[in-house]
Write a structure and sequence with these properties.
The protein has 623 residues and is an alpha+beta fold. The protein folds into three domains: 188 residues, no CATH class; 75 residues, no CATH class; 176 residues, no CATH class. Helices cover 66% and strands 10% of the residues. The chain has 20 helices and nine strands. Strand 2 and strand 3 form a beta hairpin. The chain is elongated and about 100 Å long. The two termini are 30 Å apart.
Length: 623
């Protein structure tokens, strides 16, 4: 048997241990490949939004790849830990470092190649669904299928290189240990964990500080950094010290500790917490990042809405605007050159500011009822008396009905207007109000009128690029602003399409992170599997039944899987409460939906792993 045959035999013999590594790697490859297909799609070569989507996908590509490096490094090191005795035997039988390197390289390349093939195959099968979902979320035309030669080549090249480099790097861990240490493997005596009361108190202090600041402190960059650092440090000491101290307190409760299988489970849990403290810390932080990112994007996505304003482009010119004619000419010329057939409304309006109790003075545009009927024909039928107005709130939803005073007192004039009722927005450029002709003429004597130009045209979502360019051209260096400009396409791009793109990308990246976190737990279980089998086999000889073994193992697996999940959920809850405290919409319902979605994934993962793990342990009792 040569080394290539030995490598194949090792992979097939340890197939169950390699399974989580293989499946998680395949999923990472699949997501990377799908994003690559999106990036290289011929239909995305032109268009402003298409270009942004390509850049966003490319950024996500390399986030996944960098995380895959850490994931593969951890996975391979976990396998090496379980195979130390095997490497020790190979070493004393004359295997040279070069031969060992070849063996490891071939093994990892076999797994890597299998992951790449299955990942690309899975991505090809799901491509149509991925493109349809992307088109729906980003409000783009559905993308057609094509032969993704570049995507396949890029995916295969980067992941083959990753698996090869990791294989070479891991060998240094083996060479650093002596043969005797390798032969002993993981069988080293464990001392009883002794948590530090001081460090446990520090864990409580850091977590309390982080959570307290999240709930009460002003959120700025320095405070955000402090919250992040204290929470991360507190989480580490929670798993490495405080949790072990809590278990030791449980041991002192004899009524609980000596009941049923608790004696075995709690005694063993102390060692599990000590051995897996760093793993729990990593899984908690990674999961919290995934939950928070997805939660934030979901909260934002559920509060987005498309523009429901009258005009696709609005230009408001103040009385002293000397560039009005040149600007109007630039807008109309740009629309014509890019094939947009448009109609124009020119309406006289008054720019004013009304005073609020908090000292602020929001702007509002005042229209006469007759002029405003150009925008809203139904307003002509309204009965508006002198001194009354219909208020059309801010189109971005910044103003609610409760924010608008019942009577508006204007600056630079003694006039006061009663708000008859509040309606949804009709203009993007400002809040507006409609008064009758008599009131309008009265206000006109003390406030100079401005001119609003409104442009309507079809397919306005395709005008992002030209309206962005117009905005930069008109405002220039913002040195002399006697006008305002707003484009529905630009606002829609910023408030809807970009967040939707972030949600689409962030969701897939978060799922990759979450599945990788679950895989870390899986690797750790099978790293300790041999020791656990020997323990339960010995306990079965003194009376431990199979049912008791299953209950004990299930309880410990539940702690292993759901304790980091619970900590990550608490972290996420406090992070999202910060958003709600800062006025970032209502976070409760979207956050609960996000956490429940990840919980379902975790439960499914737990059931699958438990079935495999219990089956292995049961075999140790029945042998």
């Amino acid at each position: 048997m040569n080394f290539y045959q030995l490598a194949i035999k090792n992979v097939t013999r340890n197939l169950r241990a390699y399974l989580a590594f293989y499946l998680s790697s395949s999923f990472a490859v699949m997501i990377f490949y799908l994003f690559a297909m999106f990036i290289f799609h011929p239909a995305l070569e032109e268009g402003y939004m298409n270009n942004i989507a390509q850049k966003g996908m490319a950024a996500a590509e390399w986030i996944i790849f960098v995380f895959s490096i850490l994931f593969v490094l951890y996975s391979v090191s976990a396998f090496l830990h379980t195979r130390k005795r095997e490497f020790g035997v190979l070493t004393i039988t004359g295997t040279s470092p070069r031969q060992l390197r070849v063996l490891l390289t071939v093994e990892n390349m076999l797994i890597g190649l299998s992951s790449i093939v299955s990942g690309i195959a899975g991505g090809t099968i799901l491509a149509k669904l991925f493109f349809a979902a992307g088109g729906y979320v980003l409000d783009m035309e559905p993308l057609s299928l094509y032969f993704p030669g570049k995507a396949m080549g890029l995916t295969a090249a980067v992941f083959l290189l990753l698996f090869f480099i990791i294989s070479q790097f891991i060998l240094f861990f083996i060479k650093s240990e002596k043969t005797v240490a390798l032969l002993k493997g993981a069988k080293t005596p464990k001392g009883e964990p002794k948590p530090s009361i001081l460090l446990s108190i520090i864990a409580l202090g850091f977590l309390s500080t982080g959570y307290g600041m999240a709930l009460t402190a002003e959120i700025n960059l320095p405070n955000a950094v402090i919250i992040l650092i204290t929470t991360v440090i507190g989480t580490f000491f929670f798993f490495s010290q405080l949790s072990i101290w809590i278990v030791k307190l449980l041991k002192k409760n004899k009524r609980f500790y000596l009941k049923g299988f608790h004696l075995l489970s709690i005694s063993d849990l102390t060692y599990r917490l000590k051995d897996n403290a760093r793993l729990f810390f990593i899984v908690s932080i990674v999961s919290a990042v995934a939950f928070t990112a997805t939660g934030v994007l979901t909260v934002y996505q559920t509060n987005l809405h498309a523009e429901r304003t009258q005009y696709e482009i609005e230009y408001l010119s103040s009385p002293d605007n000397e560039e009005e004619a040149a600007h109007i000419d630039s807008i109309e010329k740009s629309l014509k050159e890019n094939g947009f057939a448009f109609t124009t409304d020119e309406i006289e309006t008054i720019e004013a500011r009304y005073e609020k109790e908090d000292g602020s003075a929001p702007p509002v545009l005042i229209f006469s009822q007759e002029q405003f009927s150009t925008l809203q024909p139904s307003v002509q039928e309204e009965s508006i008396e002198a001194g009354q107005a219909i208020f059309y709130k801010d189109n971005r939803g910044v103003l609610s009905k409760e924010d608008i005073p019942a009577n508006l007192d204007f600056m630079d004039t003694s006039s006061s207007i009663e708000v008859k009722k509040v309606e949804s927005s009709v203009l993007s450029i400002s809040s507006t109000m409609v008064v009758n002709e008599e009131t309008f003429q009265k206000l006109r004597t003390s406030l100079e009128p401005s001119t609003l130009y409104g442009y309507n045209y079809q397919n306005w979502k395709d005008s992002v690029a030209i309206t962005q360019q117009l905005k930069r051209q008109l405002f220039g260096d913002y040195s002399n602003i006697n006008f305002d400009f707003s484009a529905k396409a630009v606002t829609y791009f910023i408030t809807v399409q970009l967040p939707s793109l972030s949600l689409f990308i962030g969701l897939f990246v978060a799922i990759v992170f979450f599945l990788a976190a679950g895989s870390f737990l899986y690797f750790r279980l099978f790293t300790d599997l041999e020791a656990e089998r020997e323990k339960y086999k010995a306990l079965s000889k003194i009376g431990l039944t199979e049912r008791e073994m299953k209950r004990s193992a299930t309880w410990q697996l539940g702690i292993l899987f759901f304790m980091p999940f619970l900590v990550a959920t608490v972290h996420t809850g406090f992070a999202l409460m910060v958003l709600e405290r800062e006025g970032f919409f209502n976070v409760f319902a979207p956050s609960v939906m996000t956490i429940l979605g990840f919980l379902v994934l975790q439960i499914v993962y737990f059931i699958v792993v438990r079935f495999s793990y219990i089956k292995k342990l049961t075999a140790s009792i029945t042998d």
